[in-house]
Design the sequence.
């Protein structure tokens, strides 16, 4: 009777996750674990995540050491479930095999197999091999999602789109990295690698169009001042006002609160707005959930909490993903227009520039000093047509120019 | 344009050929006075006379043997074997004589004859009256074999078979005799060996022929409702078969299923799958599959025969497998 040692696979911890870093093993070979025990910590581009066991067993072998990045579905360890005889009768690809990786994605993880132990046979279809050869992709580096883990053409194309493999096709001699004028090769961090791939894909695959407008924010600045000095909302910045304007505008243009997916257009029930936050790791986009039903005071509190906790690396996965739009406020820097790349998975992003003092002619042609900001709305043309984008931007502008309307609902 | 049944289209093809060419003759069991066991040859004896349309004794070896002799001496005989199951009794005449004469006698003669014969089940006719034995004949160099699936093809392929200088087996599926459809006043010419794309698609190639075309199209419609566009190729001709058409389709879809009523083992599907695995290996993105009858004689009982005959459901099941 064979001992039922099965693969532990890199779990998929979010819709957009394609690879993960094994940052720490909490369980060592030979160690026993029970449901709820933390097996390892997996880092994605967004967050570090404890992976808990949902079944009991013994960890037999670690295949991926700490610090290494592997695609979702790749075996990262071997383990032996308790009651091995019973488990041995079950097919390897059944839920049993993936049980300890946990979470609701358990089944999905179980269906994926990929990077095999050294020397194991790689099963790929003839057409997949041809495609891989044409694209210079190393077959063993591809995650096979066909029957029994077979690599099919679709897997090669997915790997090709994801930018696999990491290794360059042509080997470069290590001794003399020739950079004109000197320099050195810097290894990108996991975040940088992942951001590079995701943003390249977003810019390449999402048909962007851009609408810009100059907005008189004299009243908005006045209102903010009153709210702060009047003791209404302490330390109120402009960001919550922008977020509120976006949330209200999206609520009134439900067709803009949608995103494109392979299966169809997703129409969201709630208006969730992302907030681009700069951290020491890089740019992250936590989400204000249901911003469409929050008051200014609530939005200000939530935006402040998200910013602080994002910078502290202290958010949960639930704080990321979903929503149709993001606010990216570059106002603290001296910038006039900011045309942004749409956050992967969303359909629009609003880039906000700095407040600038400009002279504008009044009705009689005399110069009037005004406070203005430049807005650029980037839209996904698969979800937006030009008119929908113009309407959304016009509503946002309306709220910012007449901010009292923001407070009355 | 007239609405006719499958058998009537065949009748018109024979009739048109006989009217056009006095060397075309027709004989077999019950084809003259009775008008054929399925009524296909009704009225031909009256129209063309007892010299050209003859009833024969119940001896398949004699019927086909006489046809080979008549073809070698200047006639273009069309003969009928009442059920394909009985072609066993005519195999020597077909395999050793008809198929070999042109080759063995230094191309001094050809054997321009047609054997019409019905195959297929679904009518509870039992193990000796329901078989699809086309693979046997397609295996013999020197014989051609066609198997139409539509009204128009039944006419056009039979005309092509009669005009061909070689022995051609024309296989009619019994289930198609009830088929009704339009036959153009001037049906187009169809070359033996040319397949037809019955349905275009880019996700999967289903190769089929004869009565299996209908369930194949049903399966394709069901798959389409699930977002899978199957291409359905009606081979029309099995020997020779349109290798280029299948290969072109496979180069787009990268997935292949051959679907036929005949027993799966050692059959037409096996040949097509083997050939594509050879010449189009690098196109395959899934195992090429066959869907045919299980390795069993056709059962008598209706309930068992329904299980025995390849269905759209089984084809869909296979399609899911290659699309996984």
Sequence:
């Amino acid at each position: 009777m064979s001992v039922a040692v099965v693969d532990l696979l890199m779990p998929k911890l979010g819709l957009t996750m394609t690879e993960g870093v094994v940052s720490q093993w909490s369980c060592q070979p030979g160690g026993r674990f029970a449901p709820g025990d933390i097996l390892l910590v997996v880092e994605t581009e967004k967050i570090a995540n404890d992976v808990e066991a949902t079944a009991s067993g013994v960890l037999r072998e670690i295949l991926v050491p700490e610090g290494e990045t592997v695609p979702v579905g790749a075996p990262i360890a071997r383990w032996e479930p308790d009651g091995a005889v019973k488990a041995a009768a079950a097919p390897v690809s059944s839920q049993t095999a993936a049980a300890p990786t946990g979470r609701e994605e358990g089944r999905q993880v179980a269906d994926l197999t990929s990077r095999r132990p050294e020397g194991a046979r790689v099963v790929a279809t003839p057409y997949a091999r041809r495609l891989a050869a044409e694209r210079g992709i190393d077959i063993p580096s591809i995650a096979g999602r066909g029957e029994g883990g077979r690599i099919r053409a679709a897997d090669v194309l997915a790997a090709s789109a994801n930018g696999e493999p990491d290794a360059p096709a042509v080997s470069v001699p290590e001794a003399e990295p020739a950079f004109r004028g000197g320099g050195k090769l810097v290894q990108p961090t996991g975040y940088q690698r992942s951001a590079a791939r995701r943003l390249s894909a977003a810019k390449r695959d999402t048909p962007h169009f851009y609408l810009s407008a100059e907005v008189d924010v004299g009243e908005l600045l006045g209102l903010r001042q009153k709210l702060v000095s009047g003791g209404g909302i302490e330390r109120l910045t402009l960001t919550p006002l922008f977020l509120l304007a976006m949330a209200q505008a999206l609520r009134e243009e439900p067709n803009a609160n949608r995103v494109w997916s392979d299966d169809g257009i997703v129409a969201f029930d709630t208006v969730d707005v992302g907030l681009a936050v700069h951290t020491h790791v890089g740019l992250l986009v936590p989400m204000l959930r249901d911003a469409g039903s929050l008051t200014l005071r609530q939005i200000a509190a939530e935006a402040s909490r998200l910013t602080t906790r994002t910078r502290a690396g202290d958010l949960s996965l639930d704080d990321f993903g979903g929503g149709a739009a993001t606010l990216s406020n570059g106002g603290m820097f001296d910038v006039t227009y900011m045309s942004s790349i749409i956050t992967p998975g969303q359909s629009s992003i609003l880039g906000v520039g700095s407040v600038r003092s400009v002279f504008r002619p009044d009705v009689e042609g005399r110069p009037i000093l005004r406070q203005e900001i430049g807005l650029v709305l980037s839209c996904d043309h698969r979800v937006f047509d030009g008119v929908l984008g113009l309407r959304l931007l016009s509503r946002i502008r309306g709220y910012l120019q007449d901010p009292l309307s923001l407070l009355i609902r | 344009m007239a609405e006719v049944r499958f058998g009537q289209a065949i009748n018109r093809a024979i009739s048109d050929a006989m009217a056009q060419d006095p060397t075309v003759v027709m004989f077999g069991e019950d084809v003259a006075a009775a008008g054929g066991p399925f009524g296909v040859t009704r009225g031909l004896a009256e129209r063309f006379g007892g010299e050209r349309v003859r009833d024969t004794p119940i001896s398949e070896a004699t019927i086909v043997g006489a046809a080979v002799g008549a073809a070698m001496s200047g006639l273009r005989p069309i003969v009928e074997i009442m059920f394909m199951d009985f072609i066993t009794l005519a195999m020597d005449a077909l395999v050793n004589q008809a198929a070999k004469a042109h080759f063995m006698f230094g191309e001094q003669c050809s054997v321009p004859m047609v054997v019409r014969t019905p195959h297929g089940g679904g009518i509870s006719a039992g193990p000796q009256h329901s078989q699809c034995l086309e693979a046997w004949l397609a295996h013999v160099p020197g014989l051609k074999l066609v198997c139409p699936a539509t009204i128009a093809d039944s006419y056009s392929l039979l005309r092509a078979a009669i005009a061909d200088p070689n022995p051609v087996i024309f296989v009619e599926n019994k289930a198609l005799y009830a088929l009704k459809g339009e036959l153009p006043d001037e049906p187009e010419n169809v070359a033996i060996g040319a397949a037809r794309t019955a349905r275009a698609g880019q996700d999967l190639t289903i190769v089929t022929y004869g009565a299996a075309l209908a369930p194949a199209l049903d399966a394709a419609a069901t798959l389409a409702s699930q977002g899978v566009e199957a291409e359905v190729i009606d081979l029309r001709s099995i020997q020779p078969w349109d290798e280029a058409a299948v290969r072109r389709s496979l180069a787009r879809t990268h997935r292949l299923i051959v679907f036929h009523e005949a027993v799966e083992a050692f059959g037409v599907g096996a040949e097509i799958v083997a050939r594509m695995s050879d010449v189009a290996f690098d196109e395959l993105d899934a195992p090429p599959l066959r869907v045919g009858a299980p390795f069993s004689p056709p059962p008598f009982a209706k309930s068992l025969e329904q299980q025995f005959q390849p269905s759209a459901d089984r084809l869909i099941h296979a399609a899911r497998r290659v699309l996984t």
